[in-house]
Amino acid sequence: MKKKYLILYVVIASYLLTSCAFYTGGLNGSAAISSNNFKYLRPAKGTAKAIYLLGLGGLGRQALVAEAKKDLLDNNKLENGQVLANICVDFKYTIILIYFEVTVTVSADIIEYNSNITNTTGYSENQNQIIIENKTLENKNNEVKKNNKPITVITGNFTDERDNKIYKTIKIENQTWMAENLNYEINNSYCFNKDIHNCEIYGRLYKWDDAQNICPQGWQLPSKKDFEILLETIKKKEFMRYTDIFEYYGGIKVDNNFSELDNIGLYWSSTSSGSNAWSLLTNKTNNENTIIDYYKNIAFSVRCLKNE
């Protein structure tokens, strides 16, 4: 009888763990979903799986996501003008005694943009390029002037050799940025609300002193001037929709209090301002980006800039 109950328990546990997603993360496409600027083509999906016995074996979560993304793109080659939108990542777990299986599914919609955005290279193993035509720019007097110079954006990925974490990257004109918040663990780094899953999505929070040398080799903490150049480049809201560089709003930590997750992002610069330091504030609600100075003992996110 006890054996029957044990078998029934294992079957039920397996069913429950495979029929629901323990974690669903959103990597939302940056395009505005409007028929004015795109045409829906088809759905796409990629998967990756890892098996563990007694907790050993298999890839880590970020590596599994990267494998699933690659599977999606390998089976759905992008033509000129086609990009992914509404990207979603889903994790599912199956546990049977010492057997532990993780399945990652990346799903997305393939859409085709109008002539304002052109995918010029399709997909390659580590980068995808789009060119955005800024046809009008508003000046301080709200006058409109013509500017037909295209802005080049190249997306790719980077592996931090210190812990093998994989980060999305985005090159905007002459600057190459991490397109995700840094998640490199040191003693004085913090997951929002002390939840490790928040680190996997939003990265870690660091105080200014600890952030100064936190970037991997070949990358650096951006200066105030670097942020100013970035904001000057992406000041067009149309451009922000296509790149969505500030997709992960990691919140802040003040003393022992965490707040503003998925609402604001604050990113340290290397530029000091007395007892304060300059940082970039991004606001999800109003899509405003501002450079301001804050106390150095508050914990913010970090976005590294490639040395070029």
Layout of SSEs?
Elements: H1 2-18, E1 23-27, E2 38-53, H2 61-74, E3 82-96, E4 99-113, E5 117-119, E6 127-133, E7 136-138, E8 144-146, E9 150-160, E10 165-172, E11 175-178, E12 189-190, H3 196-202, E13 205-206, H4 208-211, E14 219-220, H5 224-233, H6 237-243, E15 252-254, E16 257-259, E17 264-273, E18 276-283, E19 288-295, E20 305-306
Antiparallel strand pairs: 1-3, 2-4, 3-4, 5-6, 6-9, 7-8, 9-10, 10-11, 12-13, 14-20, 15-16, 17-18, 18-19
Question: What features would you describe in this structure?
Answer:
- It contains six helices and 20 strands.
- A five-stranded antiparallel sheet has the order 5-6-9-10-11. A four-stranded antiparallel sheet has the order 1-3-4-2, sandwiched between helices.
- Strand 3 (82-96) and strand 4 form a beta hairpin.
- The protein has a domain at 1-114.
- 19% of the residues lie in helices and 42% in strands.
- The protein has 308 residues and is an alpha+beta fold.
- The longest helix has 17 residues, at 2-18.
